[in-house]
């Protein structure tokens, strides 16, 4: 085993998390150590200029204390998609996981999706939320969004497009062409997973209430979601006239190195 190449990189999106990110990272480390000692964590603390956000300083301090934690702290040029892509580009692992660090998504889910991926030799594994504590409005919007996605992109076996963590091999990630700078990044991953005929798995999770800050997903972002879905469906028609993409496992892009 080459110790310089982690078996798993966990990208934690920490935008405006401040001091609370430490309470997420410490148990995440403990859970990783139990199943995969060769890990790294990428803390993405990108920030708006002149915002007074303390997150960059917090994640840098955490990285200085642990040799397998690294911090990405750049002035933001986009929203969640830009942060996620920055974290994935910084990651060095054979397997790449992405999760929000706001404690809505349980840290333990990273290990759960990792174990399912390895046990069943899947290409991409994610969670789906069977219990949600973020209120009836968000639950209704999510249900509409997921149903709309299924209509536009039939055949994809996924019950909850935006749920994280998502985990994939480096080779799967490199086969994708992710460009979203905004909230659409999760859907973009799943649309490309469908195009690549990936073997996808899911595990159930409990989505917690957000206590320490308001949600960043505003009504305008919801309209952006639906608009991007329609535009992506239009763009996807061009692939009907191309040779069907073989399953990624047939192209030598499976996650086993």
Question: Topology, pairings included?
Answer:
Blueprint: E1 8-13, H1 21-35, E2 39-44, H2 55-65, E3 69-72, H3 80-90, E4 95-100, H4 109-120, E5 124-132, H5 136-152, E6 166-169, H6 170-175, H7 185-195, E7 200-207, H8 219-236
Parallel strand pairs: 1-2, 1-4, 2-3, 5-7
Antiparallel strand pairs: 4-6, 5-6
Protein model, in words:
The protein has one domain: Spore Coat Polysaccharide Biosynthesis Protein SpsA, Chain A. It is built from eight helices and seven strands. It has helices at residues 21-35, 55-65, 80-90, 109-120, 136-152, 170-175, 185-195, 219-236; strands spanning 8-13, 39-44, 69-72, 95-100, 124-132, 166-169, 200-207. The protein has a seven-stranded mixed beta sheet, sandwiched between helices. Strand 2, helix 2 and strand 3 (69-72) form a beta-alpha-beta unit. It is an alpha/beta fold and 257 residues long.
String of helices and strands = EHEHEHEHEHEHHEH
Shape, per Cα inertia axes: globular
Rg is 18 Å
- In spatial order, strands of the major sheet run 3-2-1-4-6-5-7
How much is the average pLDDT?
A: 89
Count the E strands. 7
Task: Quote the beta fraction.
Answer: 15-25%
CATH class annotation: Alpha Beta
Key traits:
257 residues, alpha/beta, Spore Coat Polysaccharide Biosynthesis Protein SpsA, Chain A, 7-stranded mixed β-sheet, 8 helices, globular, disordered C terminus
Q: Summary?
A:
The protein is of the alpha/beta class. The chain has eight helices and seven strands.
């Amino acid at each position: 085993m080459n110790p310089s190449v982690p078996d798993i990189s966990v990208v934690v999106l920490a935008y405006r998390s401040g001091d609370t990110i430490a309470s997420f990272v410490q148990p995440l480390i403990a859970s990783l150590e139990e199943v995969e000692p060769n890990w790294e964590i990428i803390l993405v603390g990108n920030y708006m200029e002149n915002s007074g956000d303390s997150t960059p300083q917090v994640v840098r301090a955490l990285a200085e204390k642990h040799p397998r934690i690294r911090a990405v702290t750049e002035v933001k040029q986009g929203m969640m998609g830009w942060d996620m892509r920055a974290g994935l580009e910084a990651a060095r692992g054979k397997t790449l996981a992405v999760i929000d660090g706001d404690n809505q998504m349980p840290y333990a889910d990273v290990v759960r999706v990792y174990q399912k991926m390895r046990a069943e030799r899947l290409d991409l594994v994610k969670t789906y939320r069977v219990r949600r504590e973020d209120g009836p409005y968000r639950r209704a919007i999510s249900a509409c969004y997921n149903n709309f996605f299924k209509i536009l992109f039939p055949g994809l076996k996924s019950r909850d497009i935006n749920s994280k963590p998502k985990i994939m091999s480096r080779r799967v990630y490199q086969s994708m062409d992710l460009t979203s700078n905004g909230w659409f990044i999760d859907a973009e991953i799943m649309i490309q997973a469908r195009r690549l005929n990936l073997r996808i798995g899911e595990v159930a999770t409990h989505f917690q209430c957000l206590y320490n800050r308001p949600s960043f997903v505003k009504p305008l972002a919801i309209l952006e979601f639906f608009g991007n879905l329609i535009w992506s469906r239009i763009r996807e028609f061009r692939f009907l006239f191309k040779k069907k993409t073989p399953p990624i496992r047939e192209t030598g892009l499976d996650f086993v190195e």
